[in-house]
Amino acid sequence: MRPIFSLLAVLTLSAATLACARRPARFADATPVTEVADDEPIDLPLLVEYNDVVEFSDLFVGRPLVEAMRTTRKPPPADINAHDEVPTSSWFAPVSLEPSAFELAYTESGPPVPPYRVLLERAPSGNNGIAVIDQLGRRFELRRDPADRPEVRTAAAAVSARIVRALGYYAPEVYISDAADGDFAIAPDDSHPSSITSGMEPQDPEVRRKQLTKTLQEWLESAPANKKGAYRFSATRWPPGIDVGRTPVAGVRSNDPNDRVPHENRRTLRAMKLVGAWLGMTRFTPHDLRDVYRGIPGEGHLVHYIVGMDKSLGTEAIVGKRPEQKDEMTLLATLGFAPDPNIPPTQRKYKALGALGEEVDVGRYGPALPFPAMDQIDGADAYWAAKRIASVTDEMVQLAVRAGKVGNSDARKLLFELILARKRHVLAWGYAQTTPCDVEAVEDRGIVVVDRAVAEGFTAGQTVEYVVSYFDSSGEPTHPGAVLSPEGARFAVPIPRSAVAADGYTVIRLMGEVGGVPAPRHLEMHVIRDGKGTRLVGVRH
Q1: What is the domain partition of the chain in residue ranges?
Q2: What pTM was estimated for this model as a whole?
Q3: Which tens digit of pLDDT belongs to each residue from 447-465?
Q4: 467 vs 404: CA distance, rounded Å
Q5: Neighbour count for residue 132 (Cβ, 10 Å)
Q6: Fewer CB within 10 Å, N side or C side of the chain?
Q7: Is the peptide bond before 239 cis (omega within 30 degrees of 0)?
């Protein structure tokens, strides 16, 4: 089904309003939405970039003041369907995680082919890059590693881009490659259909040539060549269309008629809290969200990407040496931003690894700049994100790590193990934010559910029980309820005949308790029983 997104948003918000009045949402007896029609043809939007001063004042002052005065609860996500899942859209598009199928889908364009023609353009998909056109006429953005940390930033870009795409987000293709001096050329008068310019570039050919030469030379000299005399770099295929600027951090994009859900109300963006924590994205900001127009102008639509993967896996938190002790006057003069002398330097044994540990404190994770969507995350969003992360198999992570082309085999193995260890911590946190059960089947006598936390061993050795309550669509109890103590992760929640409401619409709430401690939220299942049988029509966590 592909309804207009505004209808989905209205239905979701209406359901939330009813829930605030202690009246359960009532779902339509219909097939859940699986795909959203937000790809209707639109005119090519103008390039949008934001004034940092205005944006920062809003992020640090304006929005916090508005949120502090909020008298209602935070709005629920508006991009979910009746089964509490996120439909496919221009924001989220799951792909097959079978390694060969994933690689085929991810490598839409393929790696760059030398020689490279350097462009006098911005490279907004990450830090400190240069824009080039390869032999096949495709635009790439190339980035080097820090001089004292070979492979660390380039590997992080290639690894994390694949993991983010495996989660279902749109992420650009990133490849690891190398080239010699002779593989680069300068043609100051040429342009490209996907050019990303500011309008301030010099027009004089000779001035442009000198600036391009300087840019290329500084980029090549930013880190030493390898033993073969080649320069290693990450190549990001950007843009895969026409870059039209940053995705608005909140609200909607005014020149995109398909954009109908405020971005802070999108579960996909709220869930970035868990994704960022897992992948050590310490400098992730709203600036790393970019919009691309795909298609012929007038016939295309916007697709929303996550970029900046070179800032993941702890690459932005590396401490080169132990900071010197700062005196009180220094602390006063720097408003407390002087380096902490107690921060130990990042390990130097494996220079290809950033400041990445196996422990993750998801609750305290936050990006470098305020991110309104992350501030709106609730337990249901966290659970959805955890399920997406759990779907990324060890084999898929291994494929991603291999794409980083880290030369030291021990460093590769350690990176793989760190990513998996961090994954376990993030899953444990995400599952603990609600009753982590999903509906597996619906039968006349009951609903078969599976507890993910139990199934994946997060509650091993602990007593897990479930309190079941029954209501009609107005929120009135229809049955005394029960306490279930199943032996495994998969069990049936009974639907006694006496619990079924007069109109056949029944709401079943399942509250998990681990070691006698109730979960922060319950699982709510809506069923209809009539002459056609028993059907699940809605789920909320």
Answers
A1: 320-353, 437-540
A2: 0.89
A3: 999 999 999 999 998 999 9
A4: 47
A5: 27
A6: N
A7: yes
